[in-house]
Amino acid sequence: MKKLYLLDGHALVYRAHYAFIGRPLLNSKGLNTGAISGFTRTLWDIINNEKPTHIAVAFDLHGPTFRHHEYPEYKANREAQPEDITIALPYIEEVVKAFNIPIVTAESYEADDVIGTLAKQAARQGFEVYMVTPDKDYGQLVEEHIYMYKPSRQGNGIDKLGPKEITESWGIKRVDQVIDMLGLMGDAVDNIPGIPGVGEKTAAKLLQEYDNIENLLENKDKLVGKLKERVEQYSELALLSKKLATIDINAPVTFDEVSYKIEGANKDRLAELFKLLEFRTLAQAVLGDKPSSAGKLLFDVEIKEENSAPAKEYKVADHDIHTTSHQYYLVQNEDEIQSLISVLEKSEIISFDTETTGIDPTQAELVGMSFCTEGKVAYYLPLPADRNQVLQIIHKFKHILENPAKKLIGQNIKFDMLMMLQYGFDIPAPYFDTMIAHYLVEPDQRHKLDYLSEAYLNYKMVPIEDLIGKKGVSQKSMRDVPLEQIKEYAAEDADVVMQLYPLMKEELVKNEISSVSENIELPLVKVLCDMENDGVRIDAQFLNAYSKTLGVQILEAEKLIYEQAGVKFNIASPKQVGDVLFEK
């Protein structure tokens, strides 16, 4: 089967950008890569999972389209394109080109016109066509061999929409009525006016009875009340809106079966781009651990290799616990405990980490403790479930962990200090914290230990999911994991922190912010730890009384709303509020 996937470039870029708006993905150079990463992942998921035979990406061009000539206010309410998207677009185009995928545009036409034209042409040539977009307007193009493909959002899976799904979702009989729906109700995103006061439900009812806008206008005398007034007053606007909402399937582009065929990708160029953008995980997914030679293409297609240059080296955390020499010791009996204590007593700098049953240190229990005093050599001390037994064991380390002369280091060590407070340990302010150091050096970056390990050590750590599984009801507790596995995972944490310490300390010196870390941030860790442990005193009696006062005020506000609306409804329901505001 010949399958063509047509991607709405700008729509997917905007979607990716706003998906990360609350937690922007910034690389070490400060470039916001959220839109680039999101778009590339969508592209790769389609190539990898859907196995298209043909593919192309359509982008909007700058400047007005034929719709602006019809209606100068078209899209006039849109905010200026975010600067991060403007900066990201050239990188995205380079990624598309590196995949050897054609980019299609047409002067004075939008991407949906280009895609609509290509979709119709390809379907007539025996292709199954998938229009990749979150834009609902594309529903008007769907037919027997043309589908909308809505990429997954927030893990809810992809949607492939044919005529049945489109008509059911809009409440109409035929897909071409999507245009009439938009003509009647308008489209705030594109500033298509429609008929003021006509919403989706009213539009669907009118089309059920009158089939299309033209027929509705011919029978407007049959309408009554305000609806009749609005249809009569805005009839020309409805026709204009329908015209603006119609995707032009006669744009000046031609489907080229040869150039749109997936032939392969330039792995070397992708490696360069991914390295520049710092896409480690994407590089692993797309390129594999190590890129193949330039003669091997991404889609298992080979070309002649005699003229191909060797692939450039591209390292994507190509070291891990299985390929790196290390000595991690399990400390269980009394002799082993005393031996570890002897090592710690002789050490000036100690990397310390705890393993627990949860992420709330005031509620969790200790499962074990990890120590490291030199790179690639670490110790893991497992602890029993019985609290009294735990106290007996860890008390032997009290003189070490509470000793202000010891230089204790860790990753987010406040958690470990707060955890130990629950067992009677009052650990002094730490000497170094890799998470805090990285925050000071790269405040806009991610600061998790696995990220720091890959960025600074070219080392991929053991994911916690490998031990306890993914979040959910089936996720295990650390107590359920075999000791040998926990030992490797837990000792690795302490070891990686010890290896990161000199590198991160050098970064602080280089950026002239060592004093901020030493004089402000690290002393504050102890203060915050004590504050979180002590908690905040509240006046429960006052809050209970105030809750009742607020309850009375809420009822009074609801009564006033019902009086003004003339109907009772669920104020907490956005759908019912919408019906009241825009339908009634």
How does this structure look, described?
The chain is of the alpha/beta class and 584 residues long. It folds into four domains: 3-245, 5'-nuclease (Rossmann fold, 3-Layer(aba) Sandwich), CATH 3.40.50.1010; 267-316, no CATH class; 327-534, Ribonuclease H-like superfamily/Ribonuclease H (Nucleotidyltransferase, domain 5, 2-Layer Sandwich), CATH 3.30.420.10; 540-583, no CATH class. It has 24 helices and 14 strands. The protein has a six-stranded mixed beta sheet. It has a six-stranded mixed beta sheet with strand order 8-11-10-9-12-13, sandwiched between helices. Helix 17 links the parallel strand 12 and strand 13. The chain is globular.
What's the β-strand tally? 14
Q: What is the CA–CA distance across the termini?
A: 50 Å
Q: Describe the strand arrangement of the main beta sheet, using strand numbers.
A: 3-2-1-4-5-6
Figure out the total of helices: 24
Strand-pairing-aware structural class = alpha/beta
Biggest beta-sheet profile: 6 strands, mixed
- Within CATH, the superfamily of the largest domain carries the name 5'-nuclease
Q: What would CATH call the architecture of the largest domain?
A: 3-Layer(aba) Sandwich
Mean pLDDT: 88
Instruction: Quote the beta fraction.
Output: 5-15%
Name of the CATH class of the largest domain: Alpha Beta
Specify the overall morphology: globular
* Helical proportion, percent range: 40-55%
**Integer count of domains:** 4
Q: Tell me the CATH topology of the largest domain.
A: Rossmann fold
- In the predicted model, the low-confidence regions spanning at least 5 consecutive residues are 290-316
Radius of gyration: 31 Å
